[in-house]
UniProtKB/TrEMBL annotation, chain A:
InterPro entries: DHOase (IPR004722), DHOase/Allantoinase_Hydrolase (IPR050138), DHOase_cat (IPR024403), Dihydroorotase_CS (IPR002195), Metal-dep_hydrolase_composite (IPR011059), Metal_Hydrolase (IPR032466). Its EC number is 3.5.2.3. The keyword Metal-binding applies. GO terms for biological process: 'de novo' UMP biosynthetic process; purine nucleobase catabolic process. GO terms for cellular component: cytoplasm. GO terms for molecular function: allantoinase activity; dihydroorotase activity; zinc ion binding. Its cofactor is Zn(2+). Residues 47-235 form the Dihydroorotase catalytic domain. The active site is at D305. This is Dihydroorotase.
UniProtKB/TrEMBL annotation, chain B:
PROSITE patterns: CARBAMOYLTRANSFERASE. Residues 3-147 form the Aspartate/ornithine carbamoyltransferase carbamoyl-P binding domain. This is Aspartate carbamoyltransferase. SUPFAM superfamilies: Aspartate/ornithine carbamoyltransferase. The gene is pyrB. The lineage of its organism: Bacteria, Bacillati, Actinomycetota, Actinomycetes, Kitasatosporales. GO terms for biological process: 'de novo' pyrimidine nucleobase biosynthetic process; 'de novo' UMP biosynthetic process; amino acid metabolic process. It comes from the Bacteria.
Amino acid sequence: MSTSKILIRGAKVLGGDVQDVLIEGERIAEVGTGLSADGAQVIEADGQILLPGLVDLHTHLREPGREDSETVLTGTRAAAKGGFTAVHAMANTFPVADTAGVVEQVWRLGKESGYCDVQPVGAVTVGLEGKQLAELGAMHDSAAGVVVFSDDGKCVDDAVIMRRALEYVKAFDGVIAQHAQEPRLTEGAQMNEGIVSAELGLGGWPAVAEESIISRDVLLAAHVGSRVHICHLSTAGSVEIVRWAKSKGWNVTAEVTPHHLLLTDELVRSYNPVYKVNPPLRTEKDVMALREALADGTIDCVATDHAPHPHEDKDCEWGAAAMGMVGLETALSVVQQTMVETGMLDWAAVADRMSFRPAEIGRLGGHGRPVAAGEPANIVLVDPAYRGNVDPTGFASRSRNTPYEGRELPGRVTHTFLRGHATVSGGELA
Amino acid sequence: MKRHLISTSDLSRDDAILILDTAEEMARVADRPIKKLPTLRGRTVVNLFFEDSTRTRISFEAAAKRLSADVINFSAKGSSVSKGESLKDTALTLQAMGADAVVVRHHASGAPHRLAGSGWLDGSVINAGDGTHEHPTQALLDAFTMRRHLAGAADGGPTMHQGPGDGTGRDLAGRKITIVGDVLHSRVARSNVHLLHTLGAEVTLVAPPTLLPIGVESWPCEVSYDLDAVIPKSDAVMMLRVQRERMNAAFFPTEREYARRYGLDGDRMARMQEHALVMHPGPMNRGMEISAEVADSHRSTIVEQVANGVSIRMAVMYLLLGGNEPAVAAANPTRTEETPK
């Protein structure tokens, strides 16, 4: 079988110089100018940005258990459309991904999908109950090779369990990704606690519920010499704590979601549950602090926290609605709007925050690699000049719970390549 | 008038005064041998109560019946809702039955807002209390009661009760209203703060800091932790119900400590101004936020508030369901005092 050749001509690699990229088989064969198109399928990419395939540390693909909202197949199709070549799938499925069997199932479903690599995240505790450590070693040793462990959706709030988990995964360079939410401070919590919650009479979700857990966990990580990753930072105070921990040289990493870079709790005044999310939308001041932290590297990466829900779980009163938003298909556009078009990040830095850093945190060898000869051909092409209104009916995700419906966002993924194979071509699934 | 009544913050001063003035007209109906107007004949009002509240429900029911509307009471308990029916499906059912107005009481803040804005039903939505958000008709009946007592003097100053009709056309400019108790969980407090501010009153909230919401500093009112300092300056003191269970969540240490620091007893009442009122939206916890002596005193408007509730709810339904009739016509006594055929 002859290896296929694809020549991407004239893209701005990482937003910099215009270059040609030649893909042969699964790898990048050559990067340069005036490359020969001989025998290659040519993609004219004038004006487009070429980035390494995006990596998401935080998605909910819902399979097994909630296939009515998403499956690994539909979720990876959404990921490909969003420019991702690898996504981490959180463990809060039914059954919970707390055994080697379940993580291997998810990993296998990802392989079969062919749209995007799926790296399962293992639960930290059995059934996400925060009481007993799950078999972290078995999940690591499984075919899924789990490195990131998280009870996401729930906080590992018991300080001893958290300490032990942090220590235990050092044996295989694992990382605990903490969903920082002090449970007692957030009983009945519905939205950010502040001026808007006071008026709307919705249960307040104080910033301190997040910040107190982050404070404790960075100290624990320092104490036991482990690495900890903080999921979906949402407050200005959390940024300060992580910045302080990093200044100490502690092994702390953090992520921010696209929606926390753009949206604020003012939107909740509509009582439209499409804005209900965990952690909640915060204030303008928090949004600005998160953008600055992503720009200066305090926050390592963008992660979508893609959280599909069936229509009926959002088409109801606020209090009864599920928390979460889909995000894979809009993430890069939101980052372009909030970070690139504000001049806070250039495209090379976007590649860092959405590919290099998350791949490094998750220890994903084949992703987040430089655009250079010999590297796996995980590549995304973005048309930054595109402007369009978000239309959820066109989503590849099975769910439609986007907060951006009808909103104009910039940029569009035109092509995604997973190991040289086009998963998205001309903006459509290949 | 708008088509729905969800929050008192949606009411302009003119809207609020129109409702209060219309309620004065409605109150006169109650004094007649036949307490009924034909105004809403053939219209259907649904009382959609997801939360038990006999007091509010019968008040709305009496108001709708006095306007000759057909009234359907829908209680969530033992209904399709207890079998898992969603708010949307309940709304679609009511829509299919042709509800002209839906009076909704719901445990979730924002549920009436959602019903009004979802397109699930065409009728007017009247918020009869949603979670810890708002209870606009309660605030309107409170303002109505205050206006009768406090806005009626010829010189514009406060007077004691002069009889029905006092204050028509006026607002509550300069009156000092104190609201005491569990503001955090109170929809009555939220609705009152907006409405009383709109009507020109100066509102002071008094509560232990644990029972005030974070963010209260953005409200158009003053906040105090010291009831004794505020009482002598108040034209009306409104006591909010405080659930005894709150102490289990550490909002305050004990019932007795709460009553000592934030309850209204005879000693505190004695330091009120001569004309000042004691109010309570009910149901009361006698001995907790209010002593029996105070609740039963001549200053207390608590029973009067209940009676005024029917007039206010008649006014609200009349104005919302008046359809294309101009607001002026709605306030015209010759129309409202039409004798039943």
